[in-house]
Specification:
Length: 415
């Protein structure tokens, strides 16, 4: 996808969408938002559990100030990290032994590792505060050898663990540095919250919409919001079926963080054609990606870009009736990628830029990520400083719908 064709698209299809959907927004002038507050979305990236797990030599996070300076250089001003609330809520300064969730991906540790969450968590947030980087707290409920996450037997327990975590941050005078709290990544995916058993039990990934799931989410949000009403609170989703948003009451969420990838659109069409299976401990899926991935993309790039645009715009339209501000922190091309023989970052970057541009055009996103890979351990992506700045400049020029500035997340942008 060339820059000319991308810009032409934005002047056509996306302009029409914006005209119909953001008719009450203030116009842009000289590339800048001209709303009353001149607020614009945050440029966010995901550093997940890597921020504290990947601290061995060469892993990317052994020097936090250096990593954060690199984040600012690339135009980011928000970062989403794992706060490990189940460990902090149990023994915040204990050294925990973590079990690897995979060995073939470059998030976190590929082998057994040890971490101590506090005081490192407060130290890291403090370093972000000095650089005007807002922090989104999330959790993947990482498994440790003592299986501490199995103690989460109810929404009450989950909420209180989060409250314990936030109390420690508040005591350090750092609560104002938080952008939001995500009580569980990709709820209720069984890789991250195996302690929750849905009804029916086979509804894990994308099964957020059941009555049992929403009762849990609602209760957990109320517990955290009752103690920390100023901190936007919610869950992130692997949305899957946008139709499930119809007639749902989502007032208990302060925002929505749908994770959106071209590779999952149209019932994972791209991954099905490639033969990608999300292998965690064997390189078979990466071999399939090397063999077929880029060739498939190059065979019809306009189709894959169009598929991604429709997925993003469809997600925006599905959330409109709920009046929820959106953010997307995991996105836009493929779920998994890394520095690997015969894997090329260029086509991933092209797709990701399309995702950023499309989300930014709607006025519904209050924080926009550029990819899953905007982190120092992904050297091929991280090294292209110009690309990151270009993508983040799109976000910084975008306009937020005025009504979304009155939400908890919108008000947090003013903090």
């Amino acid at each position: 996808m060339t820059s000319i064709s991308r810009r032409s698209f934005l002047k056509g299809t996306l302009a029409a969408y914006a005209a119909s959907s953001i008719s009450n927004s203030a116009p842009a002038s000289d590339g800048q938002a001209t709303t009353a507050t001149a607020l614009r979305p945050r440029c966010i990236t995901m550093w997940d559990f890597s921020w504290i797990e990947r601290r061995w030599s060469g892993a990317g996070f052994e020097d936090w100030p250096q990593a954060l300076d690199g984040l600012v250089e690339r135009g980011y001003d928000a970062v989403r990290i794992d706060a490990f609330p189940h460990l902090v809520g149990t023994a915040p300064e204990k050294e925990w032994t973590l079990v690897p969730v995979w060995s073939v991906n470059d998030w976190g540790s590929p082998a057994l590792n040890r971490v101590r969450i506090q005081p490192g968590l407060n130290e890291f947030i403090g370093l972000c505060k000095k650089r005007n980087i807002k922090v989104g707290l999330s959790t993947w409920f990482r498994e440790d050898i003592e299986k501490t996450r199995d103690r989460i037997t109810s929404a009450q327990v989950m909420g209180e663990m989060w409250n314990d975590t936030l109390v420690g941050i508040a005591k350090a005078g750092l609560l104002d540095s938080l952008l939001y709290v995500d009580l569980c990544n990709e709820w209720p995916g069984d890789m991250w919250c195996p302690f929750f058993h849905n009804d029916p039990p086979e509804l894990t990934w994308g099964g957020w919409y059941t009555e049992k799931s929403q009762q849990w989410m609602r209760a957990a949000c109320e517990i955290v919001r009752g103690r920390f009403p100023g901190v936007p609170t919610g869950f992130s989703f692997d949305l899957r079926d946008r139709g499930k948003l119809v007639n749902q009451n989502l007032e208990y969420l302060d925002y929505a963080d749908p994770h959106i990838w071209m590779s999952q659109a149209n019932n994972e069409e791209f991954y099905r054609l490639v033969g990608y299976k999300y292998d965690k401990f064997t390189p078979d899926s990466y071999r399939a990606l090397v063999e077929k991935g880029e060739a498939l993309y190059r065979s019809k790039p306009d189709y894959w870009h169009g598929l991604l645009r429709r997925y993003v715009l469809g997600t925006a339209k599905a959330f409109e009736p709920h009046h929820l501000p959106l953010m997307t922190t995991e996105c836009w091309a493929l779920v998994d990628f890394k520095d690997w023989p015969l894997l090329n970052w260029n086509w991933i970057k092209d797709l990701c830029l399309t995702g950023v541009e499309t989300a930014a055009s709607t006025g519904q996103w209050l924080a926009i990520g550029t990819s899953n890979f905007a982190a120092p351990q992904f050297r091929g992506m991280w090294s292209d400083v110009r690309w990151h700045r270009e993508a983040n400049d799109v976000t910084k020029r975008s306009v937020i719908r005025p009504e979304l500035l009155q939400t908890r997340l919108g008000l947090r942008l003013r903090a």
